Amino acid sequence: MEKTLNRIHPVSDPEATYFLQVSWEKDLGNGFGIVLSDGQCAWTGTVSEAEISREAADMEMNREKYVEELKKALIAGEESTGKYNFVIS
């Protein structure tokens, strides 16, 4: 299992710091687990392969392209800083 941990500052609260951990087996497109923490509380969830396909279709985006964008937004870390915005609600 592969995992990444990134620090994010959501545009909805730029002074706050959150930590985003993503874990997956072999390929992010097969689904992944996610943990979001503010240092005091943590929220967990999973995203299935079917949910990834459905979201790509809803966005009228090629599935492989959608998975590449997910990788950039969720696991690329410093190289994607400033390219993606996160909103916590």
TrEMBL record:
<dbReference type="InterPro" id="IPR038051">
    <property type="entry name" value="XRCC4-like_N_sf"/>
</dbReference>
<dbReference type="InterPro" id="IPR053961">
    <property type="entry name" value="XRCC4_N"/>
</dbReference>
<feature type="coiled-coil region">
    <location>
        <begin position="49"/>
        <end position="76"/>
    </location>
</feature>
<keyword id="KW-0175">Coiled coil</keyword>
<dbReference type="GO" id="GO:0033152">
    <property type="term" value="P:immunoglobulin V(D)J recombination"/>
</dbReference>
<dbReference type="GO" id="GO:0006303">
    <property type="term" value="P:double-strand break repair via nonhomologous end joining"/>
</dbReference>
<feature type="domain" description="XRCC4 N-terminal">
    <location>
        <begin position="17"/>
        <end position="88"/>
    </location>
</feature>
<dbReference type="Pfam" id="PF06632">
    <property type="entry name" value="XRCC4"/>
</dbReference>
<dbReference type="GO" id="GO:0003677">
    <property type="term" value="F:DNA binding"/>
</dbReference>
<keyword id="KW-0539">Nucleus</keyword>
<dbReference type="GO" id="GO:0032807">
    <property type="term" value="C:DNA ligase IV complex"/>
</dbReference>
<dbReference type="InterPro" id="IPR010585">
    <property type="entry name" value="DNA_repair_prot_XRCC4"/>
</dbReference>
<protein>
    <submittedName>
        <fullName>XRCC4 protein</fullName>
    </submittedName>
</protein>
<keyword id="KW-0234">DNA repair</keyword>
<keyword id="KW-0227">DNA damage</keyword>
<dbReference type="InterPro" id="IPR009089">
    <property type="entry name" value="XRCC4_N_sf"/>
</dbReference>
<dbReference type="GO" id="GO:0005958">
    <property type="term" value="C:DNA-dependent protein kinase-DNA ligase 4 complex"/>
</dbReference>
<dbReference type="GO" id="GO:0010165">
    <property type="term" value="P:response to X-ray"/>
</dbReference>
